[in-house]
Amino acid sequence: MIVNGLIVAVAGSTGRQGGAVARRLLADGWTVRALTRDPTSPGARALADAGADVRAVDMADPAALKPALDGAYGVFSVQPASGALGAPPDYSWQDEITAGRNVADAAASAGARCPTSVCRWRRSASSARMPPRAMSG
């Protein structure tokens, strides 16, 4: 597939789902901008070796997201779920929602034409207390 240099930014690119998306996009000829909290992690290094432009970005930092998404045709975002492997110990479902909104706002501000966001929701004692609007995203 020839994609003519179009960039897709993948937030959460070193996780299972985001990593699979980033690897597939690279295999299909897309230019991938892999956004991760830790660009020195093994997953980030593997993506860089495969040709991705790896950038350190925290989804909780709206000011860092806009320049990371500038020029992107598409954005794929998957936020860690509360209690998920690799999520900070104090990361809550509210943090997950905030991160998703931050990425969506930055994608819109950057003019991305194809934004996609995925929520990794899992049922737990804490999620049972979530308001229905928050769960439906």
Description:
The termini are far apart. 33% of the residues are buried. Strand 4, helix 4 and strand 5 (114-119) form a beta-alpha-beta unit. It is built from 5 helices and 5 strands; from the N terminus they run E-H-E-H-E-H-E-H-E-H. The chain has a 5-stranded parallel sheet with strand order 3-2-1-4-5, sandwiched between helices. By secondary structure, the protein is an alpha/beta fold.
List keywords for this structure.
137 residues; alpha/beta; five-stranded parallel sheet; 5 helices; globular; disordered C terminus
Number of strands: 5
H-E string: EHEHEHEHEH
How confident is the prediction overall: mean pLDDT? 82
- The helix fraction, in percent, is 25-40%
Low-confidence stretches: 120-137
Could you give the order of strands across the largest sheet? 3-2-1-4-5
How large, in whole angstroms, is the Cα Rg? 15 Å
Shape: globular
Largest sheet: 5 strands, parallel
Strand content: 15-25%
Structural class: alpha/beta
In DSSP terms, counting alpha (H) and pi (I) runs of 4 or more, how many helices? 5
What is the rounded distance between the termini? 33 Å
Topology of this protein?
Layout: E1 7-11, H1 16-27, E2 31-36, H2 42-49, E3 53-56, H3 62-69, E4 74-79, H4 93-110, E5 114-119, H5 132-136
Parallel strand pairs: 1-2, 1-4, 2-3, 4-5
Task: Give a short overview.
This protein is of the alpha/beta class and 137 residues long.
